[in-house]
Amino acid sequence: MMERSTTSLTVERVDLERQSAQADVVATEEPMEIRVVWPDGGVMATESVAVTMRTPGDDFELAVGFLCSEGIVRERGHVLDVSYCPDPHDVQQFNIVNVTLSPDAGFDRAMLNRNFYATSSCGVCGKASLEALRLMGADSLPSDNLLLSGDVVRSLPDALRAAQPVFARTGGLHASGLFDADGSLITVREDVGRHNALDKVVGHHLMADDLPLRDRVLVVSGRASWELMQKALTAGIPAVVAVGAPSSLAVELARDFGMTLIGFARSDGFNIYADAGRIVSASEHHA
């Protein structure tokens, strides 16, 4: 998928001595529409759920992960099929993904309106947003599934950067990486949208029937926003490590749902914003 995820072009390079034409590579950005297909009164109905600007690649994972974070699918059995638009005459067929749901998913159109309130940046207050998550079925995460040493946390940003092949070529992508308690990389995805990168990770593990991810730590290449924390919570991820800063509502969400939130992670240190109990000494970690 490297060919689709990057675009080659010519730029004018200006330095202190001259200006010249040079070949360059940038991250590709294209729209992708996510549709759900479900049994409705004996016929298959189709509904457009969202359009997101994304970097092509792992599109099926992105679609499924997005639906998971919206509470529309919750387990592998809820997804019968994922495919691109079946119309060969539609020039956007590879920018439209259909997710066919099983009857067990219990989908109805009203879910879209309810979930939008909880997950979008629609201006509602923080307390209302947190309560909406609980109404979607979110609950506090257990504290005994994951322990991390400070040494492991400090190693995670560099480990994530080393696993970003498209960023190395373009310098223009976010990444989300899933690691185990020893700091070993399990899954990494890149995208122009930080939320898309995480949806791709979650979608991958949902399709592998591997949710919830309660013994894993998520590492994100930028800041920790409300949206990223909400998506991590939905996937059952108890700890999030961000290279950048968290937002106030991200901290509030983490504290309210028993998640560990770390920001400004570097090789020489980090800040713990929520639930320091999962961070232990090296000797406690190995024990």
Q: How many helices in DSSP terms?
A: 10
Identify the CATH architecture of the largest domain. Answer: 3-Layer(aba) Sandwich
CATH topology assignment of the largest domain: Cytidine Deaminase, domain 2
Look at the structure and give the CATH class of the largest domain.
Alpha Beta
Strand order of the largest sheet: 9-8-10-11-12-13
Strand segment count: 14
Q: pLDDT below 50 for ≥5 consecutive residues: which ranges? A: 116-124
N-to-C series of helices and strands: HEEEEHEEHHEHHEEHEHEHEEEH
Total individual domains: 2
Tell me the major beta sheet: 6 strands, mixed
Category from helices, strands and their pairing: alpha/beta
End-to-end Cα distance, whole Å, is 41 Å
Helix content: 25-40%
Q: Strand share of the residues?
A: 25-35%
General shape = flat
What is the CATH superfamily of the largest domain? Cytidine Deaminase, domain 2
Average pLDDT number = 87
Rg measurement, Å: 20 Å
Characterize the structure shown.
This protein has 287 residues and is of the alpha/beta class. The protein has two domains: 30-135, Ubiquitin-like (UB roll) (Roll), CATH 3.10.20.10; 148-286, Cytidine Deaminase, domain 2 (3-Layer(aba) Sandwich), CATH 3.40.140.10. It has ten helices and 14 strands. Strand 11 (239-242), helix 9 (248-256) and strand 12 form a beta-alpha-beta unit. Helix 7 runs parallel beside helix 8 and helix 8 packs parallel to helix 9. The longest helix has 14 residues, at 194-207. The model is unreliable at 116-124 (pLDDT under 50).
Summed up:
By secondary structure, this protein is α/β, with parallel strands linked by helices. Helices cover 32% and strands 32% of the residues. The strands form 4 sheets. Strands 9-8-10-11-12-13 form a 6-stranded mixed beta sheet. Strands 4-3-6-5 form a 4-stranded mixed beta sheet, with helices on one face.
